[in-house]
Amino acid sequence: MSARIFExxxxxxxxxxxxxxxxISRDQKSTSGAQLLLGKNYALSGDPPDVFSLLQSYRAFAxxxxxxxxxxxxxxxxxxxxxxxxxxxxxxxxLEEVTDYDxxxxxxxxxxxxxxxxxxxxxxxxxxxxxxxxxxxQFGTPIQSHDAGADVFIxxxxxxxxxxxxxxxxxxxxxxxxxxxxxxxxxxxxxxxxVGSSFTPAAITGLTFNGxxxxxxxxxxxxxxxxxxxxxxxxxxxxxxxxxIEFLIAGVVQYTKQVAWPAQSLIYTYPVAHPAxxxxxxxxxxxxxxxxxQGPTTTIAAYKFSNS
Length: 308
What we know:
The chain is an all-beta fold. It is 2% helix and 46% strand.
């Protein structure tokens, strides 16, 4: 058996909340099911957990193998020239045929490191060894270089079961996976730290101050007009999302304004005499079910040109 807990990107998450998926390959053909168990500590006695309770049951398995050659990050996004050379292990040695339509529609998902890819029509080279054309960087996952020996999991998209993240981002969960009629006591627990990186929104772009993109001028008698472009937020729960606008003098935040999604502009009346110079900082913030998650900040400098 090979297994991995994968933190899903927002587009694949359950109800827009941080979610995981278990990628499980079986050890023999006769194995018909698997169970994912989460460690819990009711006695609050520390490590190890007091009990492992069922989190999800499975009736479908992933193909698992190793990457047989380095795979660079600079291949074509639809890579039908080089492909991922994969040697499958375990009892499942034959990949299913994939039509062009199903391949481009993402009917089969490939998981390598932090990247999710679509599987196109694989070609068998030798028993269990395939050249797999792929579509890269799907669902916003990073296009990465992958080293020979990396784990490769291939799963039918319809068999992907998102599970809402059972612990807070930044914490570590303990899991066991059992196959068939195995008992949890027969398995060794493994730990996974939940980093939540796929749920960090990108930076705001196109920030303008009074219509300027840099070194913006203003006088002492008018409001400030700001505009910006929001990052791609597909798959994120936007019910509590907003753009945070901050006004800084000499690097210290003086005033803030929260602009509810999906607004992308603001007319702001500065509450005191306008300073000689200030910096405006903008970032996108959303609520992931436990806490506010803030994306990278975008800044613009502005200077007063009149005291009248």
